Amino acid sequence: MASIMEGPLSKWTNVMKGWQYRWFVLDYNAGLLSYYTSKDKMMRGSRRGCVRLRGAVIGIDDEDDSTFTITVDQKTFHFQARDADEREKWIHALEGTILRHTLQLQEAETGFVPSVQDFDKKLAEADAYLQILIDQLKLFDEKIKDCKEDESRRKIENLKETTCTMVESIKHCIVLLQIAKDQSNEQQHANGLISTINPVDGIYQPPLDPPVVNTTMPTQTTLPTDASQVCKSDQRPSTLQVGPIVTVMGSLQTPTPNSTGSGQSGPSSSVASPSHMPLLSHSVPDFSYSSSEDEFYDADEFYQSSTSPKHCIDPSGPQAPSPLTDEATALKRPDTTESLNSSMSNGTTDADPFDSHDDRDDEGEGESVEEHKSVIMHLLSQVRLGMDLTKVVLPTFILERRSLLEMYADFFAHPDLFVSIAEQPEARERMVHVVKWYLSAFHAGRKGSVAKKPYNPILGEVFYCHWDLPSDAEEPSPHTETVSEGPVPWSSSNSVCFVAEQVSHHPPISAFYAECLNKKIQFNAHIWTKSKFLGMSIGVHNIGQGCVSCLEHDEHYILTFPNGYGRSILTVPWVELGGECNISCSKSGYSANIVFHTKPFYGGKKHRITAEIFSPNDKKSFCSIEGEWNGVMYAKWATGENTVFIDTKRIGIIKKKVRKLEDQLDYESRRLWRDVTLNLKQRDIDAATEAKHRLEEKQRAEARERKENEQQWETRLFHEDGECWVYDEPLLKRLVPQRH
């Protein structure tokens, strides 16, 4: 067997509920990762199991530098290397193998060599037909609902299931073709390794005479520069040149209790270029398997899911007709920087004079999981493992109908909890209420299954809103005092006011501020979002901090934010928070440590949090909190008493109030993005894309003009103070004259 790599790895087994030492052999030609209980068993050919690599997806854990996963055949396999370097070697070798068996080349004898433009046009056509097919797929539900005969209903349901499977296969095909197109535009990267999870590293011109040498590490894989040669054949034409492919990792030992040692390394050998070798498809099993089927994969990962196509490219598929004009190129997206963030609820009200045009509760947002996968598959076509997603061009159709600045307002979906901090007479109780408000701030997200991305704010964009506290909402007074000097002049002195501004575009930094005049409490924060692609997950790192200020007591509570993760993005997606956060008050000495636990693949619950609140100079907490950040959290006090700390299922969300569009400034979020929002609501993706493009072009033109005139951008409402962004006219500053 011609392998490019062999060596020890640990593999998670469900039977033992732990890591087991295995000897792995990667067969480049067969596209197979086989494993054995020991190297001796490998020499005797006693294989324990294998993982097919055609159509597989590699994933990594952002919080663990030694583990990785392979997802294929509706199963997820979990592996652990000795360290980060060893994991990197295995991943790169697996990448090349996956690429070879997923992106096949067109038969040379056809003689047809289309241009990249032809390729791009056909890709746009395929994407357009896919969207039409997805829309038609929805009609099955109406047919099933109207069908009165059980037999006819079953037939329609079977047809729907078959169609869903076909749609998923088409999505995967489009993604792979998109990868090839993107690679063809990166020819300047002449020496990188191409892979399905490093797709933008480029496509390269192979050398005329690739050498055949011995090596101990896998080398680069090269493909023709013409991306149009990517096609559907299972055969490997001689135009694909692959460098030396023999690697032995016998010296790499995975430190596990039952490790038997690496023994002698397998023999290195000279292997002819695989371009002259037939693909031994007959030696590859139809499915990945193990001698103990329960042993080797995380079955829960794909519960109620049948969306992982075994074959990504149909060799017999007919070529689609061309329904598009030159302008309808759905995959030619404008160049913009986007950051990926989980979407959260809007919560506008119908009360005049405030705007309710974009209520998150409308029916237009209820896309199915199938449509969500289409969103993710298009995203995957542009990213590589570990890539910063702020550099990724995202298609317009995945956008949520609001700006990221508006999303941050949902930190105050419970303004009554926020102002209750200032109402507490003791420093200890104020810290407890800061923690309570903080833990309530994350659950107010969308209730649906599809988490789309809010608009990436334009530099200088602002968003204003306010909340009427429950007492005000129930008994409004006609003589309510407005706050003319506050951030939201049309709000009352007993309202919680909010303002946000995009203060930087590179890097993308948002600053936001909130206050309640009557309670003399304010909040100032800035967040720099860095999104990273992790294979089967997407991670969003929220860099920055916030500060709650109780002005009556001269207390300032500094807090940090958790990271967000989109998990199982190729199957049934879900969102979780992760990371350790801190809240501290230097004056009172009280502090809190909060941990958002990510779900381990080998068991455990989702959305768990634990928190400890400490008195000054105490190493033992007086309050321990645990539960789910989007559910119920319980507190255990030093006295031994157990109470419900906060129940997010029972507390009501107070909807924010935003001025109507005609009353807003030109650079306010909803007015700025109104054309994009309207077209997205009407599902006119082309018009939404054009509107988005106009905004981005205007921003680029303004940036060029400032550069030509040697001018710096001046922020509107915030200024930089050290590493923080601070609101220009905070309540703290405005109250100073009143104290003298």
Question: Would you give an account of this structure?
Answer:
With 740 residues, this protein is of the alpha+beta class. It has 2 domains: 3-105 and 235-302, Pleckstrin-homology domain (PH domain)/Phosphotyrosine-binding domain (PTB) (PH-domain like, Roll), CATH 2.30.29.30; 363-739, Beta Barrel (Porin). Helices cover 24% and strands 24% of the residues. The protein is built from 14 helices and 27 strands. The strands form 5 sheets. Strands 13, 14, 15, 16, 17, 18, 19, 20, 21, 22, 23, 24 and 25 form a 13-stranded antiparallel beta sheet that branches. An 8-stranded antiparallel beta sheet has the order 5-6-7-1-2-3-4-10. Strands 8-9 form a two-stranded antiparallel ribbon. A hairpin with a 4-residue loop joins β17 (538-550) and β18 (555-559). It is globular. Residues 104-110, 187-282, 292-351 and 357-369 have low confidence and may be disordered.
Fill in the keyword field for this structure.
PH-like_dom_sf; 740 residues; 2 domains; PH-domain like; globular; 8-stranded antiparallel sheet; 24% strand; transport; Porin; PH_domain; alpha+beta; 14 helices; coiled coil; Oxysterol-bd
